[in-house]
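EI: anyone free to look at a 793-residue chain?
SC: sure, send it
EI:
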Amino acid sequence: MLNNKIKFIIILIIIVSFSLSLAQTLLPSKYPSLRLGLVMPGGSPDPTDLETINFLKTLYGSATKDEVARFEADYFDISAGDGINKIFRDKIITLTYVYFQILFNSISTMNTSLMKMALSRGWDFEDFFLHFKEDTYLDANSVTTDLTIFVGKGTRIIFTYNSSTNHIGGWLNASNPQDVFSFSNNGGGLWIMAPERFDEINFESLSVNGQPGQNGRLVIEYPSEVDHNFSPTNWKTLNIVEDTTNQLRQAGKIRWFPPSDWKFSIIRGNGALISHDGAGGYVIRIKTLNYQIYPKISSSPDGHYNNIPIRLKKIVDLLTTNLRVGNVIGANTTSIRINNRSYYRGRDYYKDMTIEIISGRGQGQVRKVISSETGSDPLLYISPSWDIVPNTTSIYRITGPTVRILGWDPANDRNGDGYVDDDEFANLVNPKATARFRWESRVKKGTEEWSSANASCRPNLWNPNYRQALLDYYLPIWRAEKIRGYDNDDAPALLNYSHFPVLLGGRIWEKEGGPVGLDSQLNLSYRDAFFDIHRAFKESGVEFIGTNIANTNYWEWDFHRAYIGVFNFFRQEDTTWDTMGYAGDGLSVARKAWQISGYAKAGVYSLIQGQKNRFGGVINDLKGTKEAWEWATVAQLAQYYLLNIPDKTFFQFWNCTFWYGSWLTSQSENSCWDAYYKSGVPKNIAYPPHLMLRVDIGQPANRIPPGYEAIQYVGAVGRSNDDFVILTSNNLKIDVYPTYIYYLWKSTSTWSGLPFESVLAREYTKGLVIYRAPFASWLFPANMTRLDYISSS
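SC: here you go
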């Protein structure tokens, strides 16, 4: 029988072994005293800078884009956003890029895979999305999804010489803008694929009007049957209900009732351009038979595919409404400050709108907005001046453009075929919901998208089938390609007001409550369903569950704090600047040190991203010399060594933008995204100080020398030698790793109770890191430039 000591040792070994099996395994560090990170690497052209070419030839014997990719794998520790050449992924931790909280409404291989899963398993693909119950109006003055199906684009359009057999033809986006497609009688035609069933096509112009004569016929066909590979096996003719083109005699629109047997298709075979990448959708082919004069369509006038004169029906649109109503915060004779729920607006957002005082002081006055300032609860300038100046008793109403998203009500589809036809539309059971198809009502912004080709539709995260489809789609790919985790960008961007500023409508079918953006409990429930997806991936063996939190303090708010632990990797862009203060800014050593060490203590890795100051930093508005770039980079390195938690943090050196990748630098003084002191250098070679990183300063010594004072943290009660802090906002206790940053020197003059200026220090086992900083980045001494200040540290 085992004695207690042996039992304890065995139990300890089991516990340790189990813990190791769940831990993330880091590869050996490429540099002695820090770990270096990449964001969205890959895709670099061949370098053109001679010094870089010689450097790469010394390392690898050649200097092409392939050697750039090899360098990234050899000299960086982690890559967030994939892009690393597959043959190098055993040298670097590779995280891919995902958006679980968004399904882009596009023709893509991912959407095709999800659709195929749904069809093969008897699921309704549309159940993967959230849907508005009613027409919903958002506080937005533009539609930016102008290359998606919601505004009639987002399609694939090709012509074929023989549409019924080999599909050989071309894209209607020829590089020569003078090229035209001519219909003919040889079986060729125009093919259009969209991500969803559609009911209308608009020919905005014809370069040659057609003349069918007595025997000519316009025929539009659709796949009514497909095989197990979703290839069409039978085609039927659409029943056209409206044709203002008069069989393509002129520009106009053609409408039909979408048949219920219209099948999702992938067009295969030699020359199948419309499904060249294996992606599928809903296809029609248009043929003109026995015409006297065949119609012709010009390719896009500027050679751009999405500007060809063919589009579908516009669904998301701007309408003028008077739905913006609120309390006046303050006013004078020529301006008024409105209560906009603290929602940030850009300059002149309200320009040319009208504002009316509908009650309280100044009631009945109507004025034109001639300009408006940036910010939350903005100031609007009006003309003419107020006769009676409004005050806080006044209620305003603003009339101006508003984005409308259609709502769907199945009661309107009385025959249950999934489409509200003309008769049903003329007699709506619910006139507040005017979508013809259910997909038209998907919960989306329609505005302020990061790409005009994307419509950020919100998926039904509560649907377990959606979660399972994501697992079945991603896991086999990642395992085959050595991808160890992911970066789910914009993870807090769910159903919050900043993405859905609803003015009217906003309720959804998939969950009681609403409107979206205004119902905090609905957003919490949606967030928790989002967490369940990430937990499922973690339980399936995915090591790094990541997201970009930018420079937000996730300890401060309950909604964000819940992300800590569900995610074990935070990408923190814009967290260090070359001219960062030590205490007074939101970005400061005394604030970020305890936040980052707290994340590490909670088991979260951090990729800290260092941007250059966009507001007049060392680079001097991007006109920097080599010396300026080098000092700015050294300043960031010193900041990182102060914040570094070994084996828990990584660092990325970058320029002043959020555009990442391996493109070449430029000396342009007017472009921020590729700026550098010389051109032709791949950015991931240019920005990090690779030679300096080889200097071994050891690891943090975890001590403060006798006679020196630990720095006081800001935003939390505690000092750098404490193992916990107390948040000043809510008295929350947070366990942290002590950083042992101390004052090597501090001024006797103070600002807000802390030294106006200080020299911060942190001991490493083989060196000493020092960083000279004022209380805040905007408090540099008047007699010194930022470069003078940093270079004298």
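EI: Residues 618 and 787 are 5 Å apart (CA to CA).
SC: 👍
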